[in-house]
Specification:
about 950 residues, 7 domains, 5-stranded antiparallel sheet, alpha/beta, Rossmann fold
């Protein structure tokens, strides 16, 4: 290897790779071009070069670079990574001996460097006083939520010469910098000087403030960044430059002079805008951690640093005692989220809560700039109110930047470059200017790039956006900018031919989901007194695919109703617009409020308009919804001809797959009418042949994934036909498919129609409870009242099966009353049978018989015959329990009738239950032959499901009777 270098005035060069290490100037160069490298990383390279290719252990490196200081492996690894990054394509020169140390390859030789001295100013200043450690400001309160940041910054200060803390006003840059500086200097024995720039109004005063902080003379023409830097010389020093943004150019010149002239000095700066000098590492100070939702448990809330800060400051202000009411945590979470986790805003809110109370602070957050005032008297003026903090940043902008900043306030969901240009009204020719100004606003910490969204988009923090909206109103451009937002959203959501259309495209709806809050903001303006109803109606129609794709049915209904109510007789939007609005309203009513009469009227009007316009697609939508409306009301006799008409229209439609949607409707209708053989034929045909349109049309036109629904209903048919194992597999597959699709309504359907009832009837109560919990949770989250009521009925059924009869009956009664209020009576017969069973368990036999008769009457009148056999069997059990004269004979008659109904329907499962009840009755009366033989004949027709409750019960009875 080459010669070992001992003289710091020598240069070290590798002839094979053109790398050069300037020991005097402490600079790494490649081909004569300087390569940025931190001070500590430079020292690591120097040690490795001097080793002449030999391995240097980690311990040796730490002892030589940080003598006497405790340094962990992570800190050393930071520098190693920085060296490899600097070497670039030659990173292979730095080799790792796993777990032991490092070596630097290459034929390194040495030469004298005579031309290293700079030709710049040669005058120097002598320190007026020795540079010693100075007292950093000591905080009076604990720094909350910054432990990880402090650890990371400590490592960065060892790896880089300049570290800049950047972020919006009030984020806590200064406080964090002082804490880090204090710990870093204390641990490493560094001197420290703090240069506070906030009070400077003239950039020319920066150098004087810097010299003053170092105890240097700061008058005369001889004072310059270079002369002050040379006064520091080779002292080991941490310099903190605080609040640089308003004098950023002068601060950058000073920092660069220190980097070039002070090899052992490190700079820690705070600024809302980066210095943009060589070797600078940008550390973006993030907001404190806020709870994802207000419903978290108190112990989970306390895991979030924003909540911790609010509570700590509230207690210090006397607004909160040691014991916090659990109900208060939701308000605390709301405050922290609405204030973006910004420490200054949270501290101001905590102070206000001490005098106004939590709920009042939450209520007044929309007027936060009036609310959040009266900070600490000793705080900087711009930190005493939330508005003053943002005023500081706004006043530093150019007029062009201010205009763009105000325009961006309209974007509640963030924005793309295309959107920003459209709202700012800058032509495509000037997009480059917009890009530059957006970059400038990012650099000044007023907007940020959200890398979690796809594609990436820029955003304003909520507090910053509220401030920008105030400025937008003051400018007189509020309505102009929101009109442009509405026009942009219409263009974005409309079809490519730029015509007003509601082409339902699931992929497009999902793609537009990130724009949902922008759409909402534009609609709120459009239907405001200063808005424009025409463009609001256009945007409502264009937004329908987005709401449907996101299962936001309540919002879809409310937005469409608002548009319809805003239309006047003078509004000329044409019959197609009316058709589109009524179709969307009918579909959303169908799955939300469940108001059956209102829903039918809206859908009937939709069908009439679609028929008049000869639009088969909207006819199919209306027919599907009308069929669903009748079906969900238990009107199966009415639903069947609607399904047949759907098939007739589908034959004229452009998409052949529509035929299978109609066949699914018939299959479902046949199942509920008790014609299981026909139902199975239709559903099997759908499952074997249906291919969903690739553009997701069926999901949005017919509100569900058709294959998932067909499979769920097929599982029900299999269960009734006695194929319990296959039924459960298909039910679980429908759940898996629904979860994979992410479609909430399809998942609710599969849970309610298939998995829960099948698990319940086959005796798997734990699986049934999991399904019910998921169903009611989804219904609550998405405000789906229809599915919520159904889920609670199933929950009541489970409780009765599990022995909590009274509570179970209360839940079912309440849920059926909710169905009645909305005009729905679907599935009443089966749940009335469950109620009757519960009443019988509690000894209310007369009421139970009345309840079962009501269920039987509903089933016959509406054609909901699928459970008729089970209701007849249940009536027999109640009669038998009464013990009245003739009860045994009457019960036996009910069981025999139930067997006949089940056999005629092809419902082997109901037949087994009825045969078991009859065999149990006759076996108890010692006349066993006919009933037991009949039960055995039914039992032997089963080929699977032998571990289900009913088959286990039947087998036990047969074994007891000696029949098997």
């Amino acid at each position: 290897m080459g010669n070992e270098v001992n003289d710091h005035r020598e240069g070290i060069v590798s002839s094979s790779t053109r790398w050069e290490l300037d020991l005097k100037g402490r600079e790494l160069r490649h081909g004569g071009v300087p390569v940025p490298l931190g001070s500590r990383a430079f020292e690591v390279v120097e040690v490795l070069v001097r080793s002449a290719g030999a391995m240097v252990t980690k311990g040796e490196l730490m002892d030589r670079i940080w003598p006497g200081a405790f340094v962990n492996d992570n800190t050393l690894q930071v520098h190693i990574s920085a060296i490899r990054k600097a070497l670039g394509a030659d990173r292979g020169l730095l080799k790792t001996a796993s777990g032991r140390g490092y070596r630097l390859l290459g034929d390194w030789t040495t030469r004298s460097e005579q031309s290293m001295s700079e030709s710049v100013e040669t005058e120097t200043l002598s320190p007026a006083i020795p540079l010693v450690a100075r007292a950093l400001p000591v905080a009076g309160t604990e720094l909350i939520g910054r432990a990880n940041d402090m650890q990371r910054l400590s490592e960065l200060l060892s790896a880089y010469r300049v570290v800049t803390l950047t972020g919006p006003g009030g984020i806590g840059k200064t406080r964090l910098a002082m804490e880090v500086a204090h710990q870093f200097c204390q641990r490493n024995g560094h001197d420290c000087a703090v240069v506070e720039l906030v009070s400077l109004s003239d950039p020319s005063l920066v150098i004087s403030a810097f010299a003053s902080a170092l105890g240097l003379p700061h008058g005369g023409d001889s004072v310059s960044p270079v002369t002050v830097a040379r006064a520091i010389g080779e002292r080991t020093l941490l310099l903190v430059l605080d609040n640089c943004e308003h004098v950023v150019e002068a601060a950058a010149q000073l920092a660069e002079a220190v980097v070039h002239n002070c090899p052992y000095a490190t700079l820690l700066t705070t600024s809302r805008e980066l210095l943009r000098i060589d070797g600078e590492f940008a550390f973006h100070v993030r907001a404190l951690d806020v709870p994802a939702r207000e419903s978290l448990a108190p112990n989970e809330m306390l895991d979030h640093s924003a909540v911790q800060l609010f509570i700590a400051r509230s207690k210090a202000s006397g607004g909160m005692g040691d014991e916090i009411n659990p109900s208060e945590f939701a308000d605390i979470a709301t405050i922290c989220k609405r204030l973006d986790g910004i420490p200054l805003a949270i501290e101001l809110a905590a102070a206000r809560a001490a005098t106004l109370g939590l709920s009042e602070v939450v209520r007044r957050l929309d007027d936060r700039f009036t609310l959040l005032t009266s900070g600490r008297r000793t705080a900087l003026p711009r930190h005493q109110t939330l508005r003053a903090t943002l005023d500081w940043s706004y006043d530093l902008l150019s007029e062009r930047e201010r205009a763009l900043f105000r325009s961006l306030a309209v974007f509640a969901a963030g924005f793309t470059l295309e959107a920003a240009v459209a709202v700012a009204d800058r032509s495509a020719v000037n997009q480059r200017i917009a890009v530059d100004d957006i970059a400038s606003l990012v650099g000044k910490s007023l907007i940020y790039l959200d890398r979690t969204s796809a594609p990436e988009r820029w955003r304003l923090l909520e507090t910053t956006r509220v401030y920008a909206l105030e400025r937008l109103r003051e400018s007189g451009e509020f309505d102009i900018k929101f009109r442009r937002l509405a026009e942009f959203c219409v263009k974005l959501l409309s079809a490519s031919d730029d015509r007003l259309t509601a082409r339902l495209d699931a992929e497009r709806g999902s793609r537009m989901a990130p724009e949902i809050n922008n759409i909402r903001a534009a609609l709120d303006w459009a239907f405001s007194p200063q808005g424009d109803v025409a463009i609001g109606t256009q945007l409502t129609i264009c937004g329908i695919p987005v709401w449907l794709a996101m299962s936001l049915l309540v919002e879809c209904r409310e937005r469409v109703e608002r548009a319809l109510n805003a239309l006047t007789p003078d509004t000329e939007l044409g019959p197609r617009v009316t058709l589109q609005l009524h179709a969307a309203l009918g579909i959303s009513l169908l799955s939300t409020t469940g108001l059956q009469r209102e829903t039918k009227l809206v859908l009937s009007k939709t069908l009439a308009i679609a028929t008049e316009l000869d639009d088969p697609n909207y006819q199919l939508q209306a027919l599907w919804a009308l069929w669903t409306c009748c079906f969900n009301n238990g009107e199966n006799l009415t639903a069947e001809p609607i399904a047949q008409r759907f098939l007739q229209v589908a034959r004229r439609a452009a998409n052949p797959a529509d035929m299978f949607v109609g066949e699914r409707l018939l299959g479902v209708t046949m199942h509920y009418r008790g014609r299981q053989v026909e139902a199975r034929q239709h559903l099997e045909h759908v499952l074997a042949n249906y291919i969903a349109p690739g553009d997701g049309q069926h999901v949005l036109r017919f509100h569900y994934h058709q294959d998932i629904l067909a499979r769920a209903m097929f599982a029900r048919v299999l269960w009734l036909q006695g194929y319990a194992d296959q039924a459960l597999r298909h039910a679980e597959a429908s759940i898996d498919d629904a979860q994979t699709s992410g479609h909430v309504l399809s998942l609710c359907y599969a849970l309610a129609e298939a998995l829960c009832p099948i698990a319940l009837m086959t005796g798997n109560l734990s699986s049934a409870m999991q399904a019910v919990t998921m169903l009611t949770g989804l219904a609550s989250k998405y405000h789906l009242d229809f599915w919520g009521n159904w889920g609670r009925c199933l929950e009541g059924n489970l409780l009765i099966e599990g022995g909590d009869t009274t509570r179970g009956m209360e839940i079912i009664r309440s849920s059926l009353n909710s169905f009645r209020s909305a005009g729905w009576s679907m599935r009443f017969p089966i749940f009335l049978g469950v109620l009757a069973t519960g009443l019988a368990k509690t000894g209310q036999l007369a009421t139970a018989l009345g309840m079962i008769d009501e269920g039987l009457g509903r089933a016959e009148s509406n054609g909901e015959m699928w459970c008729f056999a089970e209701l007849v069997r249940t009536k027999g059990e109640i009669i038998l329990q009464s013990g009245t004269p003739g009860a045994i004979a009457a019960a036996a008659g009910s069981f025999q009738a139930a067997i006949g109904h089940a056999r005629n329907q092809g419902a082997l499962f109901w037949e087994l239950r009825a045969a078991t009840s009859l065999a149990r009755l006759q076996y108890a009366g010692t006349s066993t032959d006919d009933a037991v033989v009949a039960l055995r004949a039914v039992y032997e027709r089963f080929t699977e499901g032998f571990d289900t409750v009913d088959l286990i019960t039947a087998r036990s009875l047969l074994e007891e009777a000696g029949a098997i």
